[in-house]
Write a structure and sequence with these properties.
2 copies of one chain form a homodimer. In chain A, α9 links the parallel β6 and β7 (about 215-220). The first copy, chain A, has helices at about 5-10, 15-25, 35-45, 55-60, 75-90, 105-115, 135-140, 165-175, 195-210, 225-235, 250-260, 295-310, and strands at about 65-70, 95-100, 120-125, 145-150, 160, 185, 215-220, 245, 270-275, 290, 320, 325. With about 325 residues, chain A is α/β, with parallel strands linked by helices. In chain A, α5 runs parallel beside α12 (about 295-310). Chain A has 3 domains: about 5-50, 434 Repressor (Amino-terminal Domain) (Orthogonal Bundle); about 65-160 and about 295-325, 3-Layer(aba) Sandwich (Rossmann fold); about 165-295, Response regulator (Rossmann fold, 3-Layer(aba) Sandwich). In chain A, the strands form 2 sheets. A 6-stranded parallel β-sheet of chain A has the order 2-1-3-4-5-11, with helices on both faces. The model of chain A has no long low-confidence stretch (mean pLDDT about 95). The first copy, chain A, binds a DNA duplex (30 and 30 nucleotides) through α2 and α4.
Chain lengths: ~325, ~325
DNA sequence: CTTTTTTGCGAAAACGATTGCACGAAATTC
DNA sequence: GAATTTCGTGCAATCGTTTTCGCAAAAAAG
């Protein structure tokens, strides 16, 4: 029932060494005879031997495993990231350990330590919070780390993210181009870099258009509820905006709900532009105009950077910002 | 840089045995003195020792790891499952290895073997294909397996799934109750149990209403494209249905696209009822009426069954079918 | 002042693989 | 026929833990 190299050795009469060489495909290298190879393979097959990767890992100091740290797998955006990362590492013969940190900094740090204990060969993470000391020390002293989507200011950790500032600019300029002035912005987790950068782009676009007085930034979380509540407040305020820039797909959903409850029509009564691309966005009525992030490219690039560092030692830093793109829907009215 | 029990032993002057006992919390049990404990803990902390879970696993023959096999993480339904499973096992001190089998039987079997080699303590799987010999043998000889969503006929493997037959019945009867007769059904992967059972429910409801002549089953895959193509064909056929029963959220999306392209209105021109509950469903225009599966309950139950078997030996079988529920939208017109 | 009990700790054998070194026999070269 | 090379294989150490025994010294009991 429990097959090991030595049980095969016992049966075939060869040494554990020889069995190991044959089964790990190094037979030629050590000129094991054809017949021996055959016998060993046959026995292994018959007793369906399954090599212990944990013993292998201990010996070789390599687990062929990478860790993936995400703030919330329930969020379609991160689920997308997970999907790409998982298949990409699988393609390279690695397996992925996935942990949901629930948008909590302590969870994040504990999980990072856990991955370290598990001796993964690398970590892909969307970090939480603002303190990067632990993850940075892991990267510097133990194993390569590459961040996706979010990153830390003043850190040399490698990351791949969307150019969120540009995205914020694009979205806001687009609304302005369509004649809007009173544009509100519902932001996400305030400490997160993507949210901050998108807001910065929004601000910049408003200022360059001379709309400083109309700048209106609300909200504090990447969640449906946040989008819902803030939109409700905006709509019922004294001077409601003619357009809303929602900083994530979840916020957008909440906004849609509030708008529907107010019996308003998009885009006739109010315009909306969102962040994040997602299949469902095209199926909403109307399809929502949005700034799409190159999720797949981001994930693949992050993986590539990670494996470059896993395979060769140089502890280099690459910090990449990929351009987002505007995907036209029908949620904006020209004024 | 590389901290081990013996490096701590060397520094503190105690034996590896003692260090192990202190750090694994078994100090009391072996009446290690207060001072010794203090010294060891201090040294470990100062050199931030991180125990090697791989060495631990080798020694104890337990990895505290479970494997999760999914056909497509990009599908929101399975992403939901993943989300629950991952956090649930984490809560129990385990980590999850996730593999996307891409709806391919060979991939599925290879991945199952990989998990075996990785010596996971249990497997949660949504299987692909119809041949269960490998996974069954894994369950019988090596480690507990619990299936979610799909299962094999004539297998003693444990599973938790939705009562899909009932779901099919509910959906079809609902349409019939609203006055529909010409009801078409777009199915998913034909070999999969959920699709088969839903179709069986559809058939049964049609027959009991005396609508045998209107039974019309098309499609062959759980995908957007399948939904799109089949709906196109249905709409352009000689005698188009007044209502469509789509067997998954992905199929529904495709159907919506085709319906929109045909410039038809839901529910005025055509009614639709879907399977799978999903946040976005409420935000479509109109909100789609659907049969919701108790995804979270399913995943939690599967985990519970799995851990019962991990923690105590009895190789029992539990095969559970949970009731779905009808979630009202506005996508069905009464005739 | 023995004998027994308690206290505090260590030696060494696993767990299942990989790998550097070595070695005897057969084949080849000179 | 001696020296060298090639073949085919094995010994034993090692990776970092846990765990079974066991043992000496101190404390308690007699």
């Amino acid at each position: 029932m429990k097959e090991t190299l030595s049980s095969i050795a016992a049966r075939t009469g060869f040494s554990v060494t020889t069995i190991s060489r044959v089964l790990s495909g190094n037979a030629e290298k050590h000129r094991i005879s054809k017949e021996t190879i055959e016998k060993v393979l046959k026995d292994a097959r018959e007793h369906n031997y399954s090599p212990s990767l944990v013993a292998q890992s201990l010996r070789t100091n390599k687990t062929n495993t990478i860790g993936l740290l995400l703030p919330s797998i329930a969020n379609p955006y991160f689920a997308d990231v997970a999907s790409v990362v998982i298949s990409e590492v699988h393609r390279r013969g690695f397996t992925a350990i996935v942990i949901d940190t629930m948008e909590d900094e302590k969870n994040f740090n504990d999980s990072a330590s856990l991955l370290l204990s598990r001796r993964v060969d690398g970590i892909i993470a969307v970090p939480c919070g603002t303190d990067c000391t632990l993850i940075e020390s892991i990267n510097d002293n133990y194993l390569p780390v590459v961040l996706i989507d979010r990153y830390y200011d003043n850190s040399h950790l490698s990351f791949v993210t969307t150019n969120n500032h540009k995205g914020g600019l694009m979205a806001t300029r687009h609304l302005i181009g369509m004649g809007h002035k009173k544009i509100a912005c519902i932001q996400g987790t305030i400490t997160s870099n993507p949210s901050k950068e998108r807001v910065r782009g929004y601000r910049e676009a408003m200022t360059e258009a001379g709309f400083d007085e109309h700048i209106r930034i609300v909200g504090n979380e990447f969640s449906i509820q946040n989008g819902y509540l803030e939109t409700k407040l905006l709509l019922e305020s004294a001077n409601p905006p003619t357009a809303i820039f929602t900083l994530s797909n979840t916020i957008t959903l909440g906004a849609l709900k509030a708008i529907r409850e107010a019996a308003l029509k998009i885009p006739e009564d109010i315009s909306i532009i969102s962040f994040d691309n997602y299949t469902y966005m095209d199926f909403l009525e109307p399809p929502v105009t949005r700034i799409g992030q190159p999720t797949e490219d981001m994930a693949k690039l992050a993986i590539k950077i990670l494996f470059d560092r896993i395979e060769s030692v140089p502890n280099s830093t690459s910090q990449l910002k990929l351009s987002p793109s505007l995907i036209a829907g029908e949620s904006i009215k020209g004024i």
